[in-house]
Amino acid sequence: MMTRLKTLAKRMQHYAAHPQAVRYLAGVSFIEAIFFPLPPDLMLIPMVLAKPQDKNRLALVTTVASVLGGLVAYYIGLYFFEAFAQTWLVKMGYADFFNTAHDWFDEWGFWAMLLAGITPIPFKVFTLAAGVSEMALIPFIISCTLGRALRFYSVAWVVAWGGAKIVPHFEKYAAYVGWGLFALALCVFFLLK
């Protein structure tokens, strides 16, 4: 499995240099929110490195496509969870993440989805859980958009600012940054409550 993921990651980075790279980025961002195992950051980072002046446009494409994919996953969770998604979650090893996400929706609702957009926990797990939990659609869309925008714009801006020298550090500490943003958002949530 790991060898296949590494091969897939290399292929994604190869497509980041393709003339139609923005379309590929949108496609990967869309399917990642539904079932794809690798994050769109693997394409976003080399594309921003190649054209730092396009960082905002690339982050916007990634965000919009991810939210649209999240909507598809939401409806899969809402209408087809037992028929399709439940087996897939177990097969991919996401069952525990799903249970955690489902518990978060019961407790935090909107905030759980917003935080899902920035954490290292697979986004697709939360989009499915939002559907299963029957989260209201408008708050779902708003929270997905805010969370994903925060993540992808942060990645694009940091890479554009730091250039190639920051990428090894970014890859090494990305999970910590995601959890740090999660902790910050959680503090804001409790302060507002």
Keywords:
193 residues, mainly alpha
Radius of gyration: 16 Å
Distance between the termini: 43 Å
How big a fraction of the residues is strand?
Answer: under 5%
Mean pLDDT: 82
DSSP summary: helix tally: 10
Low-confidence stretches: none
The geometry reads as globular
Count of extended strands: 0
Largest sheet: none
List the secondary-structure elements in sequence, H or E. Answer: HHHHHHHHHH
Find the structural class using helix and strand composition.
mainly alpha
State the helical fraction. over 70%
What's the number of structural domains? 1
Kindly describe this structure.
The chain is mainly α. The protein has one domain. Helix content is 81%, strand content 0%. It contains ten helices and no strands. Helix 2 packs parallel to helix 4 (55-79), helix 4 (55-79) runs parallel beside helix 8 and helix 6 crosses helix 7 (110-116). The longest helix has 26 residues, at 137-162. The mean pLDDT is 82.
Give a short synopsis of this structure.
The chain is mainly α. It is built from 10 helices and no strands.
Give the SSE map.
Blueprint: H1 2-15, H2 21-32, H3 41-50, H4 55-79, H5 81-92, H6 95-108, H7 110-116, H8 123-132, H9 137-162, H10 167-192
